[in-house]
Amino acid sequence: MPDRTDRQPAAAAGALRRALAWQVEAGADEAIGERPVDRLAPATDGGARRAAAPQPDAPPAGPPGRAPAEPQHRTGPVPRPAHAPALEPATAAVRLESTGETVASARESARRAETLDALRDAVAAFDGCGLKKTAMNTVFADGAPGGRLMLIGEAPGAEEDRQGKPFVGASGQLLDKMLAAIGLSRETDAYITNIVFWRPPGNREPSAAETAVCRPFLERHIELKNPDVLVFLGGPSAKTLLNRTEGITRMRGRWFDYRTPDMIEAGGDPVPAMPLFHPAYLLRSPLNKREAWRDLLAIRERLDALAAERES
Ligand code: URA
Q1: Model confidence, pTM
Q2: Is residue 167 lining ligand 1, measured as CB closer than 6 Å?
Q3: Ligand 1 mean position, distance from CA 153 (Å)
Q4: Do 110 and 197 touch, CB atoms closer than 8 A?
Q5: Which of 20, 47, 127, 133 has the highest CB neighbour number within 10 Å of its CB?
């Protein structure tokens, strides 16, 4: 019988790292307790499994199996849907290595699209983003394709995944109210999308690789939509599209010139772009609505000025 001390610590650490990478890939990306629960341990107390002792500072447990009304960003992990295949550790490594090729194929596919409908079809047919495996629907866009304003959020949540439309949960309702406050609506003036087209498991932030493979489609989306004004909802959207590292608190309320790489190459005019607090953040921190209101007024002013310029 081999002695446990014979084991190579490096090999054990490698196995642990691979197991952890597999869990993160599968969506178990947040620690929710200090001590693990051994759900495979034999029942010792008439059926109940041995569970970790409650932590003194742990939040009260919610009703079992009930999802929050709108899973806001970075809530607890959700179980993998039954239809999604389990991922082997090797899959994650292969995926990382092939990200460059996948981005190139996404760019090719995106460039071929000449209309928003063709782009929607190209995104739906694209299998290069791992998020698609665990999502129910592709969430492409909602709102007015001819609207002057284009808003870009982070990623679909559970309700968006169910309906296949962006911003239809609680934060979407607040977004509609914010638009209405400056006399705009998604039916006639605003067009809404996200930086990734599929819901990340557990509502985690999309990874750099997931964002990178969706980006060529997003850039083509902006080119085809050709809005007067762009609004980046929340830090991840603003950081991704502006290639900046500052937080949303520093970036919000400022105007930036946005151009995709193809617009730069073609010498196209930049689109005025403003980062805005994400509505999900405003739901959690209503005191920041004052700043958001100021930013919304600036967005409305810019839209009016551009419309007046066009008419003159
Ligand atoms: N949050 C987002 O960033 N996008 C959605 O579509 C919904 C919530």
Answers
A1: 0.72
A2: yes
A3: 5
A4: no
A5: 133
The per-residue b/e assignment along 40-57, b for 16 or more CB within 10 angstroms, e otherwise, is eeeeeeeeeeeeeeeeee
Whole-angstrom Cα distance, residue 271 to residue 234?
18
Could you tell me the CA-to-CA distances from 109 to 103, 145, 233 in Å, in that order? 10, 21, 26
Query: Ligand 1: which of 131, 138, 142, 167 to mutate, most ligand atoms within 8 Å of CB?
Result: 167
What's the rounded Cα separation, in Å, for the pair 271 and 130?
31
Ligand 1 mutation target, pool 131, 160, 195, 210, most atoms within 8 A of CB:
160
CB 230 within 8 A of CB 273: yes
pLDDT per residue rounded down to tens, the chain (312 residues): 444 444 566 777 777 777 766 665 555 554 545 555 555 555 443 333 333 333 332 322 332 222 233 333 333 333 334 444 444 556 655 555 578 999 999 999 999 999 999 999 999 999 999 999 999 999 999 999 999 999 999 999 999 999 999 999 999 999 999 999 999 999 999 999 999 999 999 999 999 999 999 999 999 999 999 999 999 999 999 999 999 999 999 999 999 999 999 999 999 999 999 999 999 999 999 999 999 999 999 999 999 999 999 999
CA distance 207 to 182: 33
154 lines ligand 1 (CB under 6 A): yes
Residue of 151, 171, 237, 276 to test ligand 1 pocket, by largest number of atoms within 8 Å of CB: 171
